[in-house]
Automatic annotation (TrEMBL):
Pfam families: Rhodanese (PF00581). The lineage of its organism: Bacteria, Pseudomonadati, Thermodesulfobacteriota, Desulfovibrionia, Desulfovibrionales. This is Rhodanese-like domain protein. It comes from Nitratidesulfovibrio vulgaris (strain ATCC 29579 / DSM 644 / CCUG 34227 / NCIMB 8303 / VKM B-1760 / Hildenborough) (Desulfovibrio vulgaris). InterPro entries: Ferritin-like (IPR012347), Ferritin-like_SF (IPR009078), GlpE_sulfurtransferase (IPR050229), Rhodanese-like_dom (IPR001763), Rhodanese-like_dom_sf (IPR036873). Residues 25-109 form the Rhodanese domain.
Length: 282
């Protein structure tokens, strides 16, 4: 008898199936990264919870047993073992990502598991969470608006303009939500400056990352892909912050922000598809 027969079999999903699952699922889906912290920091599925395989036996009690679980590692070996261990311990909805993160080819977050969480302390209340989220959206809107003004190509300027409008619309909704609670507008003084540094790896501003990544801001495709990276980072941050929030209302708000960023990603993917189709017919 081979040793694998002692472990409970689990379903393995192809990268495409996993991407569809993540896109279609709400915040009840738990994405579990069983790699080491350094691997996670280099790139991970947005919103993924980090629990290295060596810590799983003691840490699995922290996982919601009633939620579906998508488990992944670098290439699929560690995650298969992790998924089998979880299934054998009562987790009934466990799936393994075949090929691991290497095969994922979807939205990616960067930075350590705690990266950016200083913006959302565990005890943060709903009011301050809204202000912080507004600051993040404001920083992105300002960045997109600046890039729109600097764009040489008209189609690139149009894309940056669309992105800025998305963030502006989101800001207005946050303003209304805040006003419903405190009957006053958001005072963003002192909030904006710190925000853009928490959306990309290593504390870089969006402008610094743009330069380091050598994104051609006159190329629509590169602009859209860069924007998708920023939105994925925001989604990743909100999801991680929601997971550790003490306050129920704050957690619900951060879950809603996670879904909003997922919606932004879907809109950007549609824009990218349209441009790809246009190029194929050119």
């Amino acid at each position: 008898m081979r040793w694998r027969q002692f472990l409970t079999p689990v379903i393995s999903l192809s990268p495409e199936q996993a991407r569809n699952l993540v896109a279609e699922s709400g915040t009840n889906l738990t994405i579990l990264d069983v790699r080491q912290p350094a691997e996670y920091a280099e790139g991970h599925i947005p919103g993924a919870m980090l629990m290295p395989l060596a810590d799983l036996a003691d840490g699995m009690r922290q996982l919601p047993a009633e939620n579906p679980l998508l488990v992944y590692c670098a290439i699929g070996g560690r995650s298969r073992i992790a998924a089998q261990l979880l299934a054998g311990n009562g987790f009934s909805k466990v799936m393994n990502l075949s090929g691991g993160f290497k095969a994922w080819n979807g939205a990616t977050g960067f930075g350590s598991y705690d990266s950016g969480l200083e913006l959302f302390p565990q005890t943060l209340g709903l009011e301050q969470a809204i202000v912080t989220a507004w600051g993040l959206e404001n920083a992105l809107e300002a960045f997109y608006a600046t890039q729109m003004g600097q764009a040489v190509q008209g189609d690139v300027a149009d894309v940056f303009g669309t992105l800025a409008k998305m963030e502006s619309s989101h800001k207005r909704r946050l303003q209304r939500q805040y006003a419903d609670i405190v009957d006053a507008p958001i005072d963003g003084t002192g909030v904006e400056a710190a925000m853009a540094r928490n959306l990309v790896e290593g504390g870089l501003t969006t402008e610094e990352y743009l330069a380091r990544a050598k994104v051609d801001t006159n190329d629509v495709m590169e602009v859209l892909q860069f924007a998708m990276m920023l939105e994925a980072q925001a989604m990743d941050l909100y999801a991680r912050a929601a997971r550790r929030a003490d306050d129920v209302e704050t957690r619900a708000f951060l879950d809603a922000m996670t879904r909003e960023e997922k919606s932004h990603l879907a809109q950007l993917a549609t824009l990218l598809d349209r441009h790809l189709e246009g190029e194929s017919h050119a």
